[in-house]
Design brief:
SH3 type barrels; three-stranded antiparallel beta sheet; 5 helices; elongated
Length: 182
């Protein structure tokens, strides 16, 4: 053997001896989890998290999401988990129209690409503001009934939205186009 081959062989043998010593002979002392973790610090973190959760409790939707996340998945690859979410209509309070009040959608006009709905509000306690012939409204206009506005107009129906005192939309009412007979 040449000198170069002897040097390579010595280096390989030293490497093998080191690997054998490290993994077989003088291994490190195996520590348990309780020896590796600082338990008082872990207990303090747990206490801080519990305090934050109790200070700001989870909303109903957050609790529902946690419950859904913990449930087992259906084995169907086409299953849409969004279908399990609660429907918005079920959560919103239904305020509806006042007693005896009806909204009549009697027609629409299309002028220069803008659609106007002809809407009559009938049965209001204050008869001076009730109209029998109807008024023309565009989307976004407030109708005669306070707190109600025209949300959407189509050729077959009109959707009337209801706002609360803060301006948030709380409900909507759909009125279908009525056919008038003369």
């Amino acid at each position: 053997m040449e000198k170069r081959e002897k040097i390579i062989l010595v280096i390989v043998l030293i490497g093998l001896a080191y690997v054998a010593y490290t993994y077989l002979g003088a291994g490190a002392k195996v520590l348990s989890v309780s020896e590796l973790v600082n338990m008082p610090a872990l207990d303090k973190v747990k206490k801080d998290v519990d305090e934050m959760i109790n200070k700001d409790p989870l909303s109903e939707m957050e609790q529902y999401r946690l419950k859904v996340a913990e449930t087992a998945w259906v084995k169907n690859p086409f299953y849409d988990r969004i279908m399990d979410l609660p429907k918005e209509e079920a959560k919103k309070p239904k305020l509806g129209l006042p007693d005896g009040v009806t909204i009549v959608y009697s027609g629409f006009l299309s002028i220069n690409g803008k659609i106007y709905a002809i809407i009559s509000v009938k049965g209001q306690k204050d008869k001076s503001t009730s109209s029998d012939n109807g008024m023309e409204y565009v989307e976004g206009d407030e109708i005669e009934l306070a707190g109600y506005f025209v949300k959407k107009i189509t050729s077959k129906k009109v959707i009337i939205g209801q706002k609360d005192e803060t301006g948030n939309i709380t409900d909507q009412h759909e009125s279908v186009l009525e056919e008038l007979s003369y």
